[in-house]
Structure formats: structure tokens, C-alpha cells
Design brief:
Blueprint lengths: L2 H20 L3 E3 L11 E3 L1 H20 L4 E3 L5 E3 H7 L1 H4 L1 E6 L6 E3 L25 E4 L2 E4 L9 E4 L4 H5 L2 H8 L5 E10 L14 E11 L4 H18 L7 E5 L11 E9 L2 E10 L3 H10 L5 E2 L6 H4 E2 L2 E8 H12 E6 L2 E6 L10 E5 L5 H18 L2 E3 L5 H10 L4 E5 L1 H7 L1 E6 L5 E5 L3 H9 L1
Parallel strand pairs: 3-10, 20-21, 20-22
Antiparallel strand pairs: 1-2, 4-9, 5-6, 5-7, 8-9, 10-11, 11-17, 12-13, 13-14, 14-17, 15-16, 18-19, 22-23, 23-24
The chain binds adenosine-5'-triphosphate.
Adenosine-5'-triphosphate (ATP) binds next to β11, β14, β17 and α10.
Length: 452
């Protein structure tokens, strides 16, 4: 990337951040107190966007299938969970500190200088000190008395909430292999350097699946989920050319993983991890079985071979960051063009993720007949689509700009012809600006066909 492109992309990021703040999509966490690094608050439209993404994901990967079991586990878990998985001992990043400005960085995020082969502070070029391991789990204490036994952690991933419920799911539902557990929820990591807006924060959300299989043939399931993950990126409107699959080498994989693919995305600040897909073998369930002393063996009644009857299932894990999805969707949707001799900035969301699907306007705010009819159309559409907005502020041109900025696919205007002539309204398309007259009685069918 040359200097000019870099500049353009950092401008793009600034534009997205400022649009998000201005239009109630995402705000800085605790803003009126000066903020809290690595935290972000979703406003009404950001929440709607995020919920659309989570609901679509849940539908695709859980409710549309017969082999997935959803759970919503507690964020606080027995500390032995994290001892068993190795997080207490090893969930750490290498931290380096600048001896002069005292800024701290993740060692692997600082480039090695071609001059002397050492890492220099990106802020003031001082040579950075030796790295020390910094555990990223937020430690807390449960109950009124603090002791070694009261230690707990805010979970750094949703995955373990599923593994510890494996036996419950087996006992309640008796699923046959292969089957999966799925969860959407918050995760917390005390990142050394949170950065790039919601890309790397200290509190974020994940959507994860632990798909349990017999060890023989795991490759097919891995391949199946690889395709499902790619399909998902298309379904939410990410541009195919911006999604890259990166095979992680054995040296860079977690020691228990036999194969990992990262799905990277061209964010405005460069290509970085969006999702991960890993074959985790039987590592998690075996560790929990040993550490808890609970038998987590699966009895395969379909085989007569006594050696294959008892097994600890192996796991394929597709892992999705919710906030990174929101950022990817926002950065691919952000578009600038010229319309009616004006530059306009708008969010070209795929309709399924758009926080507002349709906006309804009366042509003039001060004409009660128009307002009354527009309210009637608004209520009619809201019953069907839910996310419908009413706007009568300023002139129609300004209302279009406002809706374009938040990515509303269609605007419906009620004018005098609606009332005096033929009960039709103007439907204006966000991307092309074209307008069509549609009969009110056909409006729902018309919009439905366009929104799907
Ligand atoms: P990175 O290398 O970027 O720190 P990771 O490999 O540690 O990420 P995983 O442990 O695989 O991430 O977590 C699964 C998913 O959770 C990631 O693909 C990402 O979408 C999301 N995620 C992880 N850390 C963060 C974070 N600090 N902020 C936002 N999302 C995150």
C-alpha cells in the first residue's frame, strides 16, 4: 500500500467512526467521563444492525438445522475451567514497553527494524525492552470473602461455556454424533493495545459453534464449515474479493489444533482476522474430563466394534466475532458518489442487515391530510417490517440524505396524488435514486420482493 492509499484508508476509517457517532450507530464507551479504552457502546441503529447480524447467524446455524443445540452459559465460571484449558497459565500476549514514553505494545504487532533487527517504539523510535507474558483474562472475585477459592474470570471466549455443558446436552437430548452446540455472547480480553475502533476491544461478542464429530472423517466436516462460513460472508453482503482464507501453519497454530484457517478481511486499516475455523481434536473435552473427574465419554451405539464404542468426541470450531462482522459490514457498505450534483455518503447495506428497512414521509409537514395518510402507511408497513421510520423534518431531499446515511434501502413519500388521484406513493431506491409510483395496496408485496 503506498502512502496515498494509506492516507485514504485512514480517512475512510475516520469517516466511518464519525458517521457511527453522529447517527447513533456506535459511541465511545463511558464517553462523558472521558471514555474507557477498549469499550464501545452501541446506539439504537448499531444495536439494530448487530441484532440483525446475530439473528441471521442464529437462524442459519441453529434454527434452520436439526443438529445444533443453543446454550447461553454464565459469563462467570468456576476458575478450574480456565486452569483445565490452559488459559490461567497461558492465555497471554507478549508485552513490550518503551523505556522512554512508557507506552505498551504487543510485541508481535511492532515491526522489526531492517536497520538493526530490533523492535523500536512506534511513537518515539526508542529500542523496546524484552517482552514479558501478560495474561489477558480479567480476574475478579466472587462473593463477600476474597480468597484463592473466590477467584473467577470474565470469560475470554464463549467456547468453554459450551464444552462444560456437553454432558448436560447429552443427558437431556441424547443427540447422535455429529452434532453441534452454539452460543452467542460476550467475551472479555484485557488487550494490551485495543485499537482500530471495534476491531480490537476489551469487551466484545462472539458467535461460536463447537461441532462434535467422530475422529475419522473430520476433514469433511471442516470443509463443510469452511464453505458455510464463506457463504455467510456473502449473505451479509461482504464483497467476495475482500475475504481471504489463510491457512495457519503448524508453527502458528494452537498446539492442540490439527488444522486452522483464518478468514481475513480487507478492513480500512489492512487485511486482518475476521473469523477462525479450527479442528481442536478432543483437546477441550479430554481436559475437562480429566480435570473435573466427570466422565465425558460418548457411547456410540451405532458401532459393534468394542474399540470404537467409547470415545471422546472431536471438535470443529467455527468462531465468529460479532463486532468485527459489524465493522466489516460497515466498511464494505460505506460508499460515496455524486447524486443530483452533490457528493453523498451513504451505507449501502444488504437489505437483510439494514437497521431501518423503510422510511415513510409526508411530502409536507404542515398539511394534515398528508401527515395523516403518511402515518397510516407507516403503521401498515411497521406491522409488516418492524424496522420502519417516520420522518417529516426538513424537505424531502434532506430526508433522503439522512436515510441514505444510515443505509435505509427504501423511502416512501405520500403526496397530493396519493390522496387526490390514485392512492399511490413514491418509492425511492437508495442506491440508484430512482423513484417509482406504487399502489398502497401493493406496497408490502413490492417492498418484500425488493428487500429479500
Ligand atoms: P487476534 O489474533 O486478532 O487477537 P484471536 O486469534 O486471538 O484474534 P480468537 O481467539 O480466534 O481470536 O477469537 C475468535 C474471534 O473473536 C476472532 O476471529 C474475532 O472475530 C473475535 N475477537 C477476538 N479478539 C477480539 C477483540 N479483542 N475484539 C473484538 N473481537 C475479537
Amino acid at each position: 500500500m503506498n502512502q496515498k492509499e494509506k492516507q485514504k484508508d485512514s480517512e475512510l476509517m475516520e469517516k466511518i467512526v464519525s458517521l457511527c457517532k453522529r447517527r447513533g450507530i456506535i459511541y465511545q464507551g463511558s464517553e462523558i467521563y472521558g471514555g474507557l479504552a477498549g469499550t464501545w457502546d452501541y446506539g439504537p441503529l448499531g444495536l439494530a444492525l448487530k441484532n440483525n447480524i446475530k439473528n441471521l447467524w442464529w437462524k442459519k446455524f441453529v434454527t434452520d438445522r436439526e443438529d445444533m443445540y443453543g446454550v447461553d452459559a454464565a459469563i462467570l465460571m468456576n476458575q478450574n475451567v480456565w486452569k483445565a484449558t490452559g488459559h490461567v497459565g497461558g492465555f497471554s500476549d507478549p508485552l513490550v514497553e518503551c523505556p522512554k514514553c512508557k507506552n505498551r505494545f504487543r510485541e508481535d504487532h511492532v515491526e522489526v527494524s531492517s536497520k538493526d533487527g530490533l523492535r523500536h517504539c512506534p511513537k518515539d523510535d526508542q529500542i523496546l525492552g524484552l517482552a514479558r507474558q501478560f495474561n489477558m483474562m480479567f480476574k475478579t472475585s466472587v462473593g463477600a470473602i476474597e480468597s484463592d477459592d473466590s477467584v473467577s474470570y470474565l470469560r475470554p471466549e464463549t467456547a468453554q461455556g459450551m464444552f462444560v455443558n456437553y454432558k448436560n446436552i447429552i443427558d437431556s437430548f441424547h443427540p447422535k454424533l455429529p452434532f453441534g452446540m452454539a452460543q452467542i455472547g460476550k467475551a472479555f480480553r484485557n488487550e494490551i493495545a485495543p485499537r482500530d475502533f471495534i476491531f480490537r476491544s476489551r469487551e466484545f461478542e462472539q458467535m461460536e459453534i463447537e461441532y462434535l464429530v467422530k475422529p475419522v472423517g473430520w476433514e469433511d466436516t471442516f470443509e463443510y464449515f469452511r464453505k458455510e462460513m464463506l457463504d455467510w460472508t456473502k449473505e451479509i453482503g461482504l464483497k467476495e474479493e475482500h475475504v481471504h482464507e489463510v491457512e495457519i501453519s503448524e508453527a502458528d497454530r494452537a498446539f492442540y489444533s490439527k488444522r486452522t484457517i483464518d478468514f481475513e478481511f480487507d478492513f480500512p486499516f489492512g487485511q486482518s482476522e475476521l473469523y477462525g475455523l479450527a479442528y481442536r481434536t478432543d483437546y477441550d473435552l479430554s481436559r475437562h474430563s480429566q480435570s473435573s473427574g466427570t466422565d465425558l465419554i460418548y457411547l456410540d451405539e451405532e458401532t459393534t466394534n468394542p474399540e470404537e464404542r467409547k470415545l471422546i468426541p472431536h471438535c470443529i470450531e467455527p468462531s465468529f466475532g460479532v463486532d468485527r462482522t459489524v465493522l466489516a459490514v460497515l466498511s464494505d457498505a460505506y460508499t460515496e458518489d455524486r447524486m443530483n450534483d452533490e457528493v453523498r455518503a451513504y451505507l449501502k447495506f444488504a437489505p437483510i442487515v439494514a437497521p431501518v428497512k423503510v422510511a415513510v414521509f409526508p411530502l409536507l409537514k404542515n398539511k394534515p391530510v398528508l401527515v395523516e395518510k403518511a402515518r397510516e402507511v407507516f403503521v401498515h408497513l411497521k406491522k409488516e417490517f418492524g424496522a420502519v421510520m417516520f420522518d417529516d423534518n426538513g424537505n424531502v431531499g434532506k430526508r433522503y440524505r439522512r436515510q441514505d446515511e444510515i443505509g435505509t434501502p427504501f423511502c416512501v413519500t405520500v403526496d397530493f396524488d396519493t390522496i387526490e388521484k390514485d392512492d399511490t406513493v413514491t418509492v425511492r431506491d437508495r442506491d440508484t435514486g430512482t423513484q417509482e409510483r406504487v399502489a398502497v395496496k401493493e406496497l408490502i408485496a413490492y417492498l418484500k420482493s425488493k428487500l429479500n
